[in-house]
Amino acid sequence: MTADPATGLPRAGFFDSGVGGVSVARAFLRLRPAAPVVYTADWTFCPYGARPDAEIRARALEIGGALLGEHRCAMLVVACNSASAVALDALRAAHPGVPVVGMEPAVKPAAAMSRTGCVGILATEHTLRGRLFRETAARHAAGVRVVAAVGEGFVELAEAGDVSSAAARATAGRVLAPLVEARCDPVVLGCTHYPLLLPLLRSVAPGVRFLDPAEAVARRAAALWDALPRGA
Ligand code: DGL
To answer: Which residue stretches of the chain have pLDDT < 50?
Structure first.
């Protein structure tokens, strides 16, 4: 029995290392405002960026297990690119039959919409090193150049809600410089914290188009949520 007692609707569990996944949960709730959502921010271990794969995987399994167990969620959204890169397979194997949606680097839509033939990917080191990114880039980036950059310091800025200080502008300017120089179009926000920094990114690089994959992931999550059994 996994329905939310107040509504009789199935609960969707979201998690991230911190506030980043809110960008995905928000997109999902825009599509399914009535859906009961449980959100876990793993602040004790945030940021995931510099942690070993095995540690992130263990956290993802623990949090996913708690969302599906004590919080009685019927599906999981791994609203974190880093955790998706290292733990999606393990989560699916641990919970067969449960829909588990993860973040995917949006190389394919980026390549399709590029006006310059060069797409940028902003992500954490984990995501860029991960099999998911390497495979997606190899499969979908034929014919375009991909320039990747690690958003060094971005997770901390998003957690602090700092989108305008001089230090934030300097950090964003430093990270975006190679992407601006390479005339990347669009720049994919490959970490769920980064869309929270859009006002900062747009002010530092006004001519750049940014692509947030949250909408596409939210659509997929909504379709899976619709298919879950209803009622207590
Ligand atoms: N929001 C996460 C991601 O999408 C986590 C980043 C981090 O904690 O380093 O990658």
So the answer is: 1
184: annotated active-site residue:
no
The pLDDT of residue 232: 53
Mutate to test the pocket of ligand 1, among 45, 193, 197 (most ligand atoms within 8 A of CB): 193
Task: Specify the pTM.
Answer: 0.93
User: Which domains can be identified in the chain, with CATH numbers?
Assistant: 11-103+215-226 (3.40.50.1860), 107-212 (3.40.50.1860)
| Lookup result for tokens 């004790």 | 44
Q: What is the pLDDT of residues 122-165, one digit of tens each?
A: 999 888 988 888 888 888 877 899 999 999 999 999 999 999 99
Catalytic one among 46, 80, 118, 184?
80
